């Protein structure tokens, strides 16, 4: 009998091995045991699991075993742990029992046997459905023809959607056990996962585990309960049960999880179909699949039919997606399902405006449920749910994390917690006193890796700019602090006295004076999302496209609240109307006015227009309730120029002969951008002179002054003064 070896665990990063039941060890180790590649190996940490032992590169360490995260979970270890490894002779499995999440209905056992073939399965392990391509056990005797791997993958894709790649199932039983090798002749039994089984770690949480969507859960429960139990009573009153429910919301907000958890809560069966995949199929094949799957929904009641991403098959006629030939067939099938007693139809979409409007309303989807991007309080609830079983250190502040995660949906927050936990585990061996605990710094480090999925485009990185980095504009800072920061810092005071801060601001002034820069600093001070769009970027030659782009921009800003939306060069986006024939910009102005009026009821969203030509902006934008606060961002005076120069040079090697006070006096008419260019040109001259150890001297500054003239002319400043005059 081969002697066991103690090896150190390192994480396996090879894409061809990840989550496929494969570990890698040094060739010398396998030779010591006299084993061929892909022999079965038992790995003992806090529990015992088994893997296929493949060869690691010869240059790797001999005392290391490379395991993926799923195998580490099964062995109860983390990177840096030590495990005992020994060869085993695993029998062929006659029968295995797999436990699936509640929303999975009747996966094909032959497909499961094919994708699991060759894997070494241990009772209690979690196993992925990704096939391993190294070992195909020989057939033990006559039997039905096995399903090919390609056919098995297509079958799983149709039944489970893309989730099959990420789905882990629990090995509830192995015969003969507790460890055996699966083959394509192994009988696979599918069991329904119990929500009370703590070892199963269900993919779909319990209803009480869905943080931040309590109102939506209560409303959905009411509709489905009436649909299941209220049919006879409604019939006596001359009505029929409510029609289907359309659930909308951004990706990762919990639409499918809510429906699956509600099905388990109400004791209803759940059938799931995926519009993304059906839309890519041949219409005839997709129609046959629909008839087969929906034909099973009759019994036993009650039943819920969930159709994910229904807009992929029933798109809006005026949208970018082409109508699918499957659409009419699907409508007939869904109406037939909707007419069955104790059967509820639920569909999901990211944006209801992408769906054919004919299906929304009585007859198909009578009820609509929106799950928006969670606000701060809801993010706190979600974080509390995800961190319940995490060993948090005393310095972890979920409130602070919730404040920093504007625009994050439930899936983003779950990923954030996962990465924080992983970072803590990976760093554990290097800080033994703190191993096994998750600190606030782990969450902050994870924040640098996770981006909010609800808002991706047009959101600008702030780069840590704060008010102290703005070496000027004290009056402007005070006004912006009053408008934006006071409602965030003192909301109770504002509500108690009925104070409402303006929602719109117009920053005007000469170019290069820091309008965009100070807004970045404001967004950082407010811990808000910051969106910047230049006016011409939204304009399109296609009728209606500019208005749609503006609506989408405002919707994303509202979803990421608290947020600041900066419309730079707003004079090109919303110029003065009434110049003759209606143009496309006139329609854009009308859309912009409508959206600004809607901001009155929207909390924690501010719209800021910035322009060098305030006289060109349509006057209707500047009335109270819209961009009502006019803030002049003027050229810096002497003291302001000194402050700007101090900020620009604070990290530069200044010579002893540099006098910033004198330089501030000599830069009359320079904007903030001019001063930045001046310092940059002077530093370039210094580097050219002494590349190894440059020193910025007064001679370099005089040289840069001669090459960098001021951009602000007196007649230009007079125009701004005239616009702001009462």
List the helices and strands and how they pair.
Layout: E1 5-11, E2 22-25, H1 27-33, E3 39-44, E4 48-55, E5 64-67, H2 69-75, E6 82-87, E7 95-100, H3 109-116, E8 120-122, E9 126-128, H4 149-160, H5 163-166, E10 168-175, E11 179-181, E12 187-192, H6 214-229, H7 231-236, E13 244-248, H8 255-266, E14 269-274, H9 275-280, H10 283-294, E15 303-308, H11 327-338, E16 343-349, E17 365-370, H12 376-386, H13 398-404, H14 410-427, H15 440-447, H16 474-489, H17 491-496, E18 504-508, H18 515-525, E19 529-534, H19 535-538, H20 545-559, E20 563-568, H21 570-573, H22 584-598, E21 605-611, E22 629-632, H23 638-649, H24 660-665, H25 672-689, H26 698-707, H27 714-724
Parallel strand pairs: 1-5, 2-4, 7-12, 13-16, 13-17, 14-15, 15-16, 18-21, 18-22, 19-20, 20-21
Antiparallel strand pairs: 1-6, 2-5, 3-4, 3-6, 7-10, 8-11, 9-10
Helix pairs in contact: 3-4, 6-8, 10-11, 12-13, 12-14, 14-15, 20-22, 23-25, 25-26
Overview of this structure, please?
- By secondary structure, this protein is of the alpha/beta class.
- The chain is built from 27 helices and 22 strands.
- A six-stranded mixed beta barrel has the order 1-5-2-4-3-6.
- Helix 25 (672-689) crosses helix 26 (698-707).
- Mean pLDDT is 80; it is low at 193-204 and 429-433.
